[in-house]
Amino acid sequence: MKTLRILNLALLVAFPVAWFAPLLRAGILPLFSLNEISVMSGVIDLWQIDIFLAVLVTFFALVAPICKTLGLAMIHAGRMDARALPVLHLFGRLAMADIFLISLYIVVIKGIGVGRVETGWGLYLFTACVLLSLWVSFTTERLEKAAKKDINAHG
Predict the structure, then answer these.
(1) Is the pLDDT of residue 152 over 70?
(2) Beta-sheet pairing, 35-37 with 24-27
(3) How many angstroms separate the first and last alpha carbons of the chain?
(4) Which spans are transmembrane here (predicted)?
(5) What is the distance between the alpha carbons of residues 13 and 16, in angstroms, rounded to a whole number?
(6) Whole-model pTM?
């Protein structure tokens, strides 16, 4: 459980770094410079174009994953009861929508499809954060269920 706690706390740092890191570099023609696109730059651009969609993307891409991570940190620290896991599981499901939404708004807002696109290191960091977050959630739920079964079997 200590390893889970440390990995989950690392996500509290890694997620914000991934939000500002370049996911992609995109340009219209090969001769022009490429613009770096991050989660935050996309959300900022979106706020200027469509506030409603910006709020949705902000919730799915930023709020849901960090709330889930904070909740798991509180469970690991013994500050929150494990009965909150179903709610955190819901946040985890909502947070998975961020990958799809971010991909869509990059295509729509930046007009990628007629130019050049290169992946940035932030894409790998963001992917690692999402996968690690899934693993920590899954493992925490599994350990909590096992502990509950063990308590019921012995007492």
Answers:
(1) yes
(2) antiparallel
(3) 22
(4) 49-75, 87-109, 121-139
(5) 6
(6) 0.81
Are 34 and 23 a contacting pair, CB within 8 Å?
no
Q: Determine the Cα–Cα distance for residues 37 and 58; give it in Å rounded to an integer.
A: 15
How many domains does the chain divide into? 1
Contact 92, 137 (CB under 8 A): yes
Q: The CATH number of the domain where 9 resides is what?
A: 1.20.140
Q: What are the residue ranges of helices labelled H in 59-120?
A: 64-76, 85-110
Position 48 scores a pLDDT of 92
Strand partners, 24: 37, 119
Query: Whole domain around residue 109: which residue ranges?
Result: 2-154
Per-residue pLDDT tens digits for 89-105? 888 877 765 665 566 55
β-pairing, 24-27 vs 116-119, is: antiparallel
Helices H, strands E: what count in the chain? 6, 3
